[in-house]
Amino acid sequence: MDRYRINHLRELEAESIFVIREVAAQFERPVMLFSGGKDSIVMFHLARKAFYPAKVPFALLHIDTGHNFQETLDYRDDLMEKTGAKCLVRYVQDSIDQGKVVEEKGINASRNKLQTVTLLDALDELKCDAAMGGGRRDEEKARAKERFFSHRDEFGQWDPKNQRPELWNIFNGRKNMGEHFRVFPISNWTEMDVWQYIYMENIELPSLYFTHKREVFNRDGVWMFKAPFMQLKPGEELIEKDVRCRTIGDITCTGLTLSKADNIEDIIQEVAATRTTERGGRADDKRSESAMEDRKKEGYF
Amino acid sequence: MSDKNSGYLDMELLRFTTAGSVDDGKSTLIGRLLYDSKAIFEDQMEAIERASERIGNEEVNLALLTDGLKAEREQGITIDVAYRYFATPKRKFIIADTPGHIQYTRNMVTGASTANVAIILVDARHGVLEQTLRHSYIASLLQIPHIIFCVNKMDLVDYSEETFEKIKNDIDGISSKLDVKDIRFVPISALNGDNVVERSEKMEWYDGPTLLHLLENIHISSDINHQDFRFPVQYVVRPQTAEFPDYRGYGGRIASGAVKVGDPITVLPSGFTSKVKTIDFFEDTLEEAFAPQSVTVTLEDEIDISRGDMLVKSDNLPQTTQDIDLMVCWFNERKVIPRGKYVIRHTSAEARCMVTNIHYKMNINTLEKNEEDKEVGMNDIAKLTLRVTKPLHIDTYNQNRITGSVILVDEGTNETVAAGMIR
Q: Strand ranges (DSSP E) for B282-374?
């Protein structure tokens, strides 16, 4: 029966397209969260496939911390122009100006946690009943427990101990007024699957994922880019290195990998050989053992 | 395509579930598979080393790797299904790691619903226990095509062939009562790694494959029903653009079987017939498509078709009925209400239904039917009859895991209260 066999990437693709179509069918005002990172780029690619030749029947939503790499923003605007999709942007700076959140202080200050408030406000303002995210179960131990369709109460909170059972491919998106769903179409993809798929489908990526020379500094064993709003600690110094991003968050929490990989094939080789996890360079996960679970309960991505 | 990456692109996906408690060595086994296949990373290992030390474990506690929630780590138990991933050059694996105690039957059922393979652990010292029976029953109820019984802790019974053979015989005795297609046995020691990834030198009497070798080679592509074409319509694609003014395609994932351009199609429930005009997949058009692909199908004739309808081949129709017999696993604290009403979901269709009969409750520790006690509560498995407000187009679960399955949803709370397998 090998005539009816598809490889693991095509099977994952079919599953994700199924999930995305389910969202479009079961919800009235879904959005797809878009960060400009590889996972959301792949997710958007899958959405285009799901509805072709029609346009994607929902908007994208980018929560801009104001601390993004310029390359990411340029890539986003480019992609929207090429595909004719619509990307809404909401700014953490606005939440700060409105006094809804207070900027963190100190040397490791980050706007990562503040994003949750901006995100929940945006979902409220846009009356979204579902938000798709590019989270993957292999990323982090709390994410390993996440459903495809993840129910959120009226406060946007996740209750990990009381999740709806999810069987076969039947997804239950029913909810009460004011509640919403987070949906993770690429739940079952690993970092390697994402890279292989990008290779197989020849998907264009922001230049940050490929090697480039950059002035960086080392903090707690992680190479970081120094943006103008960041401060060096005594003893930290800027050195020029060949680096690339393995994952892209905002500048304050994205560790850079020393690498000379300038094409997808070499990146796949690098991912295959690496002995640390993708989020090992993410300062936002290092805050405590349950940093991700705690943020997710509050309504984080 | 270059040589160095082409290998990765030809892997099959295998989903397996592991049922068992910490005492069975389930977490150790998963830890062993992940560790030996290099799917545990250094920073993860360091994190569990630190955590093990903090809670006072002498050795690295691999269970901490699978227990992802704070409450699980604090209490040292697995509460919910966790998904784990690893790959070898041959296959990519998705593990649905489920808790094994009876109060988590619903989580086991959830993990089992998508699995190709079930791994059931048996402690070599204790042999076949009540829970072995329970796990085997759930695997057969959910029609997992392959079951691998891992007789674990062989190191604690001096790697005795006799012990292994006795357990094997006992399980053969049970499995004759169950509906399972393919059963395998592997004697292992998860702790020492015997017959998990590497062959054991201490059990030369065993000439079968190691567990990983089995997982890599079990034939799974025929697990899918390739005979009966079933295409539940999920989403109607209508671009209404200048380029595609009249395009009307039906998006969905093929549940079973295959379809070619030109095939005669019947649309359910309307019964209208037509032929497949194109099978579209993004910018490509396909001559043939098959399960489990997600595609968009267009037809020769303009017919009113919407989500919840099903396209099938005109010479192979499913059963259309409003009265459905099924086995359910109940998920909710609120018990089944005789003549109670629920929302029923079957593929992309949704309707309401009423429980018209509770036939019996299954004692899953003894496999006996209990026709006296009809109180069906959390984690219970029972046979029911439902009356549905509109006809559903069904196959039996034995024939088709997609068109043979339903979920029930509580109309008040919107919670998923049951999984049903159509008889």
A: 284-286, 288-290, 294-299, 310-313, 319-330, 341-346, 349-363, 368-370
The answer to whether the Cβ–Cβ distance between A172 and B69 falls below 8 Å is: no
In which residue are the tokens 């946007």 written?
Answer: A156
A96 and A137 inside one domain: yes
A145, A167, A293 member nearest B419 (Cβ) = A167
Q: Do A160 and A173 reside in the same domain of the chain?
A: yes
What is the number of domains present in chain A?
2
> Is B10 within a domain?
yes
Rounded distance, CA B421 to CA B423, Å? 6
Rounded Cα gap, residues B82 and B240, in angstroms: 43
A201–B contact, CB cutoff 8 A: no
Cα of B15 to nearest chain A Cα, Å: 11
Same domain, A38 and A111: yes
Q: How many CA atoms are closer than 13 Å to the CA of B286, on its beta-carbon side?
A: 16
Residue B119 near residue B16, CB atoms below 8 Å: yes
Q: Which two tokens stand for residue A277?
A: 């996890």
Task: With beta carbons less than 8 A apart as the criterion, state whether B16 and B95 touch.
Answer: yes
CA distance linking residue B94 with residue B15, whole number of Å: 5
| Any A CB within 8 A of B281 CB | yes
Helix axes B130-141 and B161-175, enclosed angle (nearest 10): 50
Q: What is the ipTM of this complex?
A: 0.92
Query: Which chain B residues touch A160 with a CB distance below 8 Å?
Result: 69, 80
Per CB-CB distance under 8 Å, the chain A contacts of B87 are 190, 192
Taking contacts as CB-CB distances below 8 angstroms, the residues of chain B near A166 are 110, 416
Residue range of the domain that includes B273: 230-313
Same domain for B192 and B161? yes
- Of B167, B186, B217, the domain-final residue: B217
Per-residue pLDDT of chain B (423 residues; tens, 9 = 90+): 344 555 567 789 999 999 866 577 887 888 888 877 777 767 777 777 777 777 676 666 666 666 666 666 666 666 678 888 988 888 999 999 887 777 778 888 989 999 999 999 999 999 998 888 888 999 999 999 999 999 999 999 999 999 999 999 999 988 888 888 899 999 999 888 899 998 999 999 999 999 999 999 999 988 889 999 999 999 999 999 999 999 999 999 999 999 999 999 999 999 999 999 999 999 899 999 999 999 999 999 999 999 999 999 999 999 999 999 999 999 999 999 999 999 999 999 999 999 999 999 999 888 889 999 889 999 899 999 999 999 999 999 999 999 999 999 999 999 999 999 999
C-beta separation of B383 from B359 below 8 A: yes
Please check whether residues B360 and B296 belong to one and the same domain.
Answer: no
Q: State residue A86 phi and psi, 5-degree precision.
A: -110, 130
- Which pair of tokens denotes residue B205? 């009497």
Distance separating the N- and C-terminal Cα atoms of chain A:
41
The verdict on B2 touching A (C-beta cutoff 8 Å) is yes
The residue range of the domain holding A217 is 206-285
For chain B, what is the domain count? 3
